[in-house]
Structures are given as C-alpha cells and as structure tokens.
Amino acid sequence: MLWILSLFPKITSSYGKEVDNLFWFIFFIALFFFLLVQILMIYFVIKYRNRGEEEVSKVEGNTFLEIVWTIIPTIILIVIFFYGVYVFDNFQRRPPANSMEIKVIGHQWWWEFQYPNGYTTRDTLIIPVNKPIKLIMTSQDVIHSFFVRHFRIKEDLVPGRYTWTWFKAVEPGMYDIQCAEYCGSRHSKMIGYIKAIDTKEFESWLASVSKEADLSSLSPVERGKRISQLKGCNSCHSVDGSPGVGPTWKGLYNHEMVVIEGGKEKKVIADENYLRESIVNPNAKIVKGYQGIMPSYQGQLSEDDILAIIEYIKSLK
Ligand code: CUA
Question: For residue 184, which atom of ligand 1 is closest to its CA?
Fold first, then answer.
C-alpha cells in the first residue's frame, strides 16, 4: 500500500497544498457515497433475499426520497464546481508578474527547455528556488503532458499551439518530470528533471553557460532577427512601419487586426498563436487589404525558430 504515498510526495511548490485540498475534498465525498451505496446494497441484498416465500415487494416509488437524492447531489456538485474554479482561477492561472519565462518544447521523447537568453537544455530544467517560473509550452510532434508530482502541476503540450503553466519551487532539490500523455513507444522513458537551486548559484550557472553555445548564445530576439533575415521575411514585412507586400512587424504584436477568414471579416489579436498560425498557415486568416501570397513555412522552421521570430516581432514595438 505504501506505493500510494509515492503519488503524493511532499509538496515543494507554492500552491500545491491548494490542489491537494481540492483533490482530497472530492476524493472523500466520492468515497463516502461509494461506501454508502455499497453498504446499503449489501444490507438490502441480505435483508430482502429470496426466502422461498411468495410475497413480492410492493414499493412503487417514493417522491420525497427521489427529490432528496436529486437535490443533495446537485448541491454537492455545484460546491465542487465552484471550489474547482476557485483553485484554478486564483492559483493555477495566476502567474505573478515577476515570473521568469521559460519555453518548453516537447519532442518524441525528450524535453527541451529554452531560457530567456536563448540557452537551451535537454531533459533537465534548472531553476532558481523561490522564483515564480512561467512555462510557455508547445510540441514539435505529438501531444505530450508536463507533469511534476512534487509541484502538483500538469499541463499538455500541443503541437501547433502554445499552452502555459507556472510554479514556484519553495525547496531546493531534484524533482521528476513525467510525460503524462501517451506519445509513442518510448512515452514511459520521457522523464526529465527539475533541479531547483539557490538564486545566486542559478545566476552564476546561467551566466557561465550563456557564453558557451554559438547560436544559442544569441537572445531569442537576436536569433529571430537573424532567422527572419535568412528566410527573407523582411522583403515583404518591414520592421520600421513602412508599407510592404505584407503587414509591417512594427507594433504588430498584440495589435487588433481585421482579417478575412473563410471569406468572412473578423477581428483577431495578433498574439503568439495568431503569429505562429500566420507563419505555418498564412492563408488561414489574411489581414484585410493584403493578398494571400505568402508561402507556408511549415516544416521549414523548427518550433525553436518560430518562437525566436515571434520574440523578435514582440520586440518591435
Ligand atoms: Cu511525451 Cu508521453
């Protein structure tokens, strides 16, 4: 039975307790009703067993009982719903403003982590303790799921989309990352580690590694700039606001645009998902007043490159 405890290791994140409380709240309600139904069922089976007599039960229904067992579960489910929304909205979806952003890309079958300075690591995510970390996640191939038991967090990585989650480690240590979505033959081997270390230690580590690698020594913005020059993006999209064949990138990020989708006019915000879609599937939502002549870059740019280009566009305010 002790293996059950390994499902609930010591909480080492800031809001893990809230998640556990919600879990146990629902669990014990379910347990209570499971036992109630089972015990009553066994009791009735014995009490009303066939004794070889002729008499049959004449109970046709009981309106009072039916109203009671409709209203009570309804109230309980409503309570569970609002409690769930409360935890989700007040903790899980509230990354503090000073969060450090780290990009996560899922691959068959490994984890890629990209730091704000462009440095990437494989399978091991090194983070400072007591600092909120916001993970912006996507997948290079199929759906994966980022699951850290000690932090009580789990969020899917979906190809073609950015999802996010956040946590704050409150204790230094090594914590397992497991992939919690079946993703192929080596799914069970898709294990990573979060190494939470002291802030000073983290900063000196990050400074030492940023000098190392060649392209990854560039910040994502610099890298995005270089890639967009290499791919010729800027022959159609200016970066200084001047008109071109395509919309300018200057001030594009988070700007509200009128686009044509399936022949209909529609308003969209040029956020990460819109920008990504416009790179891999440019004709899905064409900005009004432009022609759909841009080729798709699906397969020509890695998720790494696309993130870098988006970071570059974000920097052009
Ligand atoms: Cu990745 Cu399962």
Answer: 2
Asked: is 100-213 a CATH 3.40.140.20 domain? The reply is: no
Give residue-wise pLDDT tens across range 225-249: 878 877 777 777 888 888 887 899 9
pLDDT in tens, 7-18: 788 899 999 999
Annotated domain spans of the chain? 2-47+60-92, 100-213, 220-315
E strands within the chain? 100-107, 110-114, 120-122, 124-128, 133-139, 144-148, 153-157, 163-167, 173-179, 191-197, 256-261, 264-269, 286-287
Residue 161 near ligand 1, beta carbon < 6 Å: no
Tokens of 253: 């990020």
| 0.70 surpassed by pTM | no
Kindly state the helix (H) or strand (E) to which residue 68 belongs, with its residue range: helix 63-87
According to the CATH classification, is domain 2-47+60-92 in 3.20.20.140? no
pLDDT digits (tens, 9 = 90+) for 98-132: 999 999 999 888 899 998 877 778 889 999 999 99
Q: Does ligand 1 have an atom closer than 6 angstroms to the CB of 190?
A: yes
Residue 81 carries which side chain, given as an amino acid letter?
A: F
Paired tokens of 137: 């996640």
Residue 182: CB within 6 Å of ligand 1? yes
Superfamily of segment(s) 220-315: Cytochrome c-like domain (1.10.760.10)
> Would you say the CB of residue 181 lies under 6 angstroms from ligand 1?
yes
Cα–ligand 1 centroid distance for 142 (angstroms): 8
Ligand 1 binding pocket includes 179 (Cβ within 6 Å): yes
